[in-house]
Structures are given as structure tokens and as C-alpha cells.
Design goal:
The chain has helices at 22-25, 68-77, 153-161; strands at residues 4-9, 42-46, 58-59, 65-66, 83-90, 95-102, 106-107, 116-117, 122-123, 127-129, 138-141, 149-152, 167-171, 173-175. The protein has a 5-stranded mixed β-sheet. Strands 2-5-6 form a 3-stranded mixed β-sheet, with no helix packed on it. The protein is of the alpha/beta class. The chain is globular.
Amino acid sequence: MMRYFLLGPDKQISDAPVCENFNQRVDIRRLNPKQSWEIPSRVLVTLDPNEHTVFPDVVMAPVLMFSPEAWKVVEDYEPYLKAKEVVLLDQVNALTQVYFLPILTQLDCLAEQSPYDRVGGLLSEPVLYDEIPTLLSLFQISGMRTPHTIMRMDLMESLLCRNLYGVKMTEVRLLQREKGGT
């Protein structure tokens, strides 16, 4: 059985980019395959001033974004996955960095056994039904208040083999859905 991981921010990166005007530039409600055409193909986003900003290969906030090097790896596993380009503008350090914002499939695969923080809308230890399509290596859990992105182990290993950083991974437990259940 394939193994999957919940992606989260790497808390050790204290100077990751903080987007100043992201929600004004990208309507995150449209980050799905049916509505993504409403988002421009390239977006310029300014960063909060920080003279120590670092640009990790994977950015988790405000949404999942990949550096060009990481995106090449993702494309090997998901050749049909569409993405928007997000140019992060660091005015303090006079730098720009391009990231790719994937338009992820959303799967209804969350098991009732998942401990869920109803206040924060976060899953700490997700439990998923094992009905994940075998060709899908990166997706989001549908029906969540906040985005929860899941990555298949082979894609995760390929990113780690290239020493790419910026994300914390928590293995998810898979359950078989009982017959007659939802």
C-alpha cells in the first residue's frame, strides 16, 4: 500500500517569505481546477519587510508554492498538473523569486476517525480512506476550512533526495472504507 504525508510549514525556517498582499492578488477560493481560469497566469506579490528573508523550495503559507527546482520534480510525477506563477518581490533586499502555485485536485477522503480541531480547522493526525487514485501524487482534502495538502511518498522522497527544504511532513494513516458507509 502506498504511503502518504500531510504537508505543513517547517517551523525551523523563521525568515520564510511573508506575503503582504497575497489575498488581494489571488482569490484562494478559486484555487481549484474548475475556477482557476479566473486567476491570472502570473501574479506579483510583495513581501513584508524582512532583511533576512530566505526563499525555501516549498512555501506553505499563505498557500502551497514550489520553487522552480521543486516544481520540476513535481511535474515529473504530475505532468498534467496546472500551476500559476507567483513572483515574490522582496523590496528590502531588492530580490524577486518565482514560485509555482499548483491547482490541486480535491479529494473527499477524510475518515471520520481523524482528530479535527474545529476551532482552528486543522488536522493534527489525519486519517484518510485508502481510495486515493494511484496516479495522484499531490492533492488536497476537500471540505476543509483551511487547505490540507497530501503528498505521496515517492514524490516526497524525490524532493528530499535533491535536498529541497521548506516543508514538514506527517505520515497519514489509511483506512479501508466499510461497505455501505459514506
